[in-house]
UniProtKB/TrEMBL annotation:
It holds the Pfam family MatE. The keyword Membrane applies. This is Probable multidrug resistance protein NorM. It is a multi-pass membrane protein. It is found in: Cell membrane.
Length: 451
């Protein structure tokens, strides 16, 4: 039975540039909005509470990514499956995939919430978090973890919407969440003086808002990806397919996040100012990296639909177009960040030591963002065909194994934090070389039948 297309944007025909661009823009804006309300937490905390509180929020970021990394992999797997079934115009399997995906997200969300609340202190101690920062870090992370269920379910709902080509909806809901978060940050931190507790609670509430709005839309929409609450359950064959595609991405995300936790642990040894400066720049870094990941998600959906429809030529053209878009974006933003590095850091703090640590990170990162853009776009292309293991191996090798070896072997030869900062562009080079070799030589793009 053919799938109705009123609110399902199939990208299997038409202008490729326009389709990828128009699909990417809401994803980019949505991710930037999500990063905005995370950044606002740090800006308000840094200006109204102090550098130690800013360090506490920043040091928790890598752990938060670790907690949600696996669920993001599951959302990626579900998105690929849903997009392929939509491309193949298979209504029954689309229905099964959507409801199985939501069931998986609820289970993962509950597990992550419990784990985050119970293990926060121990992990932060293991990360060498300084005593003057530890209390605030634990408080922020525990409260934030209390809202992880809503974060995970929203990400899955967003993945379903994106798979259907309806990325604008995710943008709308993140917009509402961002406004909610900013208003509550001002009320809780500036007016009520709640410190890092207020920042975490504001974020939790904003995540509840985006989750309820996204699920509410999926319940009401009259499309093949509509959610019927009574049908939310695990379909074994569909769950197996989602896990087969999503598990490598989830493991990849978790392991890379773990390596970032190790990097953060190394940064922590340089003291609170280094933690605050690095953490503040990581918020700025998100405005570059997240759009790159948006392009990667866009090409994954585009490839999923066209690969499901056996339109191999469109898959190849889409890959090159996305690579060009990512390159242009990262070159422009890299130049802008370097040009305005000082005023950007002053948004977070007036502490000169913190500012210098942040500016130094920009000097190492900004000229090389194009490398991570090409790496992620190629990985997203391959992932869209359902072959998620090769990108996992490449990203784990470059962004996890290589970084861990560097921290153990090379870092002791550096007496400053430069040894940590230079690690990022070097690992991007390693990853891009490996990914190009696989795309060039690997057998990842062959005609098939979606099963």
């Amino acid at each position: 039975m053919a799938i109705a297309k009123r609110k399902t944007n199939l990208m299997t025909q038409g202008n490729i540039v326009k389709q990828i661009l128009f699909f990417s823009i809401p994803l980019i804006l949505g991710n930037l909005l999500q990063q905005l309300y995370s950044t606002v937490d740090s800006i308000i905390v840094g200006n109204f509470v102090g550098s130690n509180a800013l360090a506490a929020v920043g040091s928790s970021t890598s752990l938060i990514y670790l907690l949600i990394a696996f669920s993001q992999g599951a959302a990626t797997g579900a998105g690929v499956v849903v997009s392929q079934y939509l491309g193949a115009e298979d209504r029954k399997r689309t229905h099964d995939a959507v409801h199985t995906a939501v069931a998986i997200s609820i289970i993962l969300g509950l597990v992550l919430t419990l784990g985050g609340v119970l293990l926060s202190r121990q992990i932060l101690i293991w990360m060498n978090t300084p005593k003057e920062v530890l209390g605030d870090s634990v408080t922020y992370l525990r409260i934030y973890s209390g809202g992880l269920l809503f974060n995970v379910v929203y990400n899955m709902a967003s993945g379903i919407l994106n798979a259907a080509g309806n990325s604008k909806r995710s943008l709308y809901y993140l917009g509402y969440a961002s406004v909610t978060n900013i208003i509550l940050d001002i009320v809780f931190i500036n007016i009520l003086g709640m410190g890092v507790e207020g920042a975490a609670i504001a974020t939790d509430i904003s995540q509840v808002v985006s989750c309820i709005l996204a699920i509410g839309y999926l319940v009401k929409v009259n499309e093949p990806y509509k959610i019927k609450l009574k049908d939310i359950k695990l379909n074994k064959s569909t769950a197996d397919r989602i896990i087969k595609i999503g598990l490598p991405t989830g493991i990849q995300n978790m392991t890379i996040s773990l390596s970032n936790v190790l990097v953060q642990s190394s940064v922590n040894q340089f003291g609170a100012s280094a933690m605050a400066g690095f953490g503040a720049y990581m918020k700025i870094d998100g405005f570059n990296i997240l759009p790159v990941l948006s392009f990667s998600m866009a090409i994954t959906t585009f490839v999923g639909q066209n690969y499901g429809a056996n339109k191999i030529d469109r898959v190849k053209k889409g890959m090159w177009i996305t690579l060009a878009m990512g390159a242009v974006y990262t070159i422009i933003t890299g130049i802008l960040l370097l040009t305005f590095s000082t005023p950007l850091m002053r948004l977070f703090t007036n502490d000169p030591n913190v500012i210098e640590y942040g500016k130094l990170a920009m000097d190492y990162f900004c000229p090389f963002y194009i490398l991570i853009s090409c790496l992620q776009c190629l990985a997203g292309t391959v992932r869209g065909t359902g072959k998620s293991i090769p990108p996992m191996v490449v990203l784990l090798t470059s962004m996890c194994l290589f970084r861990i070896v560097w921290l153990q072997v090379a870092l002791p030869f550096f007496s400053t934090i430069d040894g940590i900062y230079v690690l990022y562009p070097v690992s991007w080079i390693v990853g891009l070389v490996l990914m190009v070799i696989y795309v060039w030589k690997g057998k990842w793009l062959v005609p098939h039948t979606v099963s």
